[in-house]
Amino acid sequence: MTEVSAGLGTGRASVGAILDFAWTAGEFTATEAMATTTLTRSTAIDAIDTLVSAAVLRELPNARVAGSYRAGRPARRFVLASDLGVVVGVDAGDTHLAVTISDPLERTLVHHRTDLDSGQSAAQRRATILGQMQLALDEAGVERTEILAICVGVAAPVNRAGISPPHPDGFWERTNPGLAEALADWAPVVEIKNDAQLAAIAEGSAGAAVGCRDYVALLASERFGGGVVVDGHVLHGAHGGVGEGVVFDHIVGVGSAFGLRYALQDQVRAAVESGEISSESAIGRLAGEDRIDPRIVLTAASAGDADALLATSRVGATLARVVGVLGSMYDPARVIVCGGVAESIAPVLTAAREVLPAQLHLPAPEILASTLGAEVVSIGAVATARMAAREVAVPLLAERRLSAVS
Question: What string of DSSP letters covers 223-265?
């Protein structure tokens, strides 16, 4: 029994089969539903009529009314109702917050992104996240009662109950400040997920891993963290810690879980201190700044600047060691570098590809740059919320409506 039919209860298997079919069918006829679900004609029609009576499916004007009728009896046409509710995807990073309100199928209603103060307490962060979610709902003109499912991505391991384990410095508890409990009454389904796992879901559904069953989505801008997919399954672990970046604190040649932005900054400053890069050059002058914008170095490297290429080649060697560890542990076909830095990461990837084969005994995975940009976690959060709506929330809604009309 599918999750959809299970959600509709015993004796509702045919209704569940039609509902599951309707998610991807667009407009359809009973004949088309029969062909996919293998239900008999009478059973398919009964199930369709049941869902129409519950306002989960909507019957469209027939071919005669629509103006395309030619001869014979016009077929009845149906479509999933457009007013079932909304889903909410949230990317709650350490220094940013993105909230997306979408319909259950494909349309985005509201998306906004704002900076967060990384110095906020857990209570302040929780209040900010909830407040921004409510503002997004208000902007979309949606009530909380219309939410089908919520998925929030956080920069921390998260267990299956949505709770993060304790961190030695309290970082994980602050990053995920009791969100599962705080959002429990907001929607029928609330999922709190690790951000790298959501990046992996995004890459598999709309990015560089479409059609690939073994890959790692490597969030690499601020901190390293991998969303790992093996044999088509996103790996989780007892505490949601598969792919956690702390391992890189112990890898010679990496030495830290801090991501490529910091690696570029460190290499530029080290090369200036050693005299390999002049402090008076365009790249050398960046070393005196409090924070080096990685895009400046990467753009210069793409244009052939020798100083920038020196820095990016060394960062490429660091990335190769990171990918080598992931390749040895999980044997992926692809490692996809994700996050805002990915759009200009080509010089680093070129350098990494040259030295990667020496980092592992297995065939080296292909290293790719994500095309999903800074919104990769948001995309994964919305995709996860939509799947939860499809598998759990809408079947429950249909069950309630069917009970009310029976």
Answer: B-EEEEEETTEE---TTS-TT-GGGGGGSTTT--SB-HHHHHH
